[in-house]
Amino acid sequence: MNRQKGQIVIILLLITLVALSVGLAITQRTLTNLTTSTQNEQASRAFSAADAGIERAIQASENDPNFSSLSTFDVGPDSKASVTRVILPNPNQALEYPPLGKETIAQFWLINPDNFNDAAFLNNEVDIYFGKFDVLPGSTDTPALEINAVILDISTNSYLSSRYYIDSASSTQQTGRSPENGFTLSNQNCNGNNLINTSSSKDASSDRKFRCKHHLVLSTDSNKKPIILRIRILYSNLNHPIAVAPSPLLSNSLPPQASIFKSTGISGQSQKTLQVFRLKYVVPNFFEFSIFSAGDIQKNTN
Fold first, then answer.
1. Which domain of life is it from (predicted)?
2. How far apart are CA 148 and CA 238, in angstroms?
């Protein structure tokens, strides 16, 4: 009997140890859930702060066309945002659109949209870069382009619409393609190694790579001013980059017409960044169709 004394103490210690372990596990789980919930809430607030910063910057740029940056400002409890704006394109730089999918139209102003008489931005010849450089010519996702060029005839004060259909694949590379489809093959090359400095380049010394390059002469008549290019992707199901540069690039520039707003929202330990590409004076999609006209409608297909 004397040798059995103290066993109850050991049992109680074991029970206490088990209970303590369970309690610590529950406490740790609770603290983890609380931390995760706090981080999610801060991340949500940071995203909302970045979004609010974008909206505020867009409003500021509409009131001040030269607006370039906005200092850090409070947008809510424990939340702030800082926004910068870059006006594009820079001189001697191609304007690149965000990657484009089917049924989406990229728009490029060839003349100052605020002043059609501004000769500094009159561009009659352009180079169009398009396509993901790593898509091979035999792939079903090699892109083609539909280009709608709107031209102002100053002699009659009327607008003309000229359409061009450019393909990156021939019938020997892809069944049913040029010349069977009536498209024109890209007149430069589609070797995937077409380099150009664009508004999406990392810096002034780095170039972007495209699948194809096409040189387009829009007008040889001094009375006809190319106003705008509207381009969309055909055939491919992928999103492809498109860039337009005046030709020759070194002696011409496209007018400033787009902005990239970058907003960084901060809440607690969370930080979220939003970037928005915004084009000035976007023509609505129904512009592609003639609904009403007081006079004759002229449409040229090339």
1. Bacteria
2. 21
Helix (H, G, I), strand (E, B) or coil at 16: helix
What is the C-alpha to C-alpha distance for residues 296 and 300, in angstroms, rounded to an integer? 13
Q: Cα torsion at 47, 50, 52, 53 (round to 10°)?
A: 180
Q: What's residue 169's pLDDT?
A: 85
| 227, burial (CB in 10 Å: exposed 0-12, middle 13-18, buried 19+) | middle
- Binned average pLDDT, 10 residues per bin, the chain of 302 residues: 65 82 81 72 88 88 80 77 90 92 91 88 92 86 93 90 90 83 89 91 89 93 92 93 90 88 89 91 74 64 56
219 near 238, Cβ under 8 Å? no
Q: CB of 130 within 8 A of CB of 100? A: no
Task: Report which of 44, 103, 53, 43 is spatially closest to residue 73, judged by C-alpha positions.
Answer: 53
Q: In sequence order, what are the residues at sequence separation of 6 or more whose Cβ sits closer than 8 angstroms to the Cβ of residue 25?
A: none
Smallest Cα–Cα separation from 256: which of 116, 119, 114? 114
Predicted local distance difference test score (pLDDT) of residue 137: 74
Angle at 243 between CA 126 and CA 197, to 5 degrees: 95
The residue whose two tokens read 């398009």 is 130
Q: Which residues of 271-283 are buried (b: 16+ CB within 10 A; e: fewer)?
A: ebebebeebbeee
Q: Which two tokens stand for residue 260?
A: 């990239």
Query: What is the pLDDT at residue 301?
Result: 55
**Contact indicator for 53, 159 with CB cutoff of 8 Å:** no
Residue 38 CB neighbour total at 10 angstroms: 13
Determine the Cα–Cα distance for residues 165 and 167; give it in Å rounded to an integer. Answer: 7
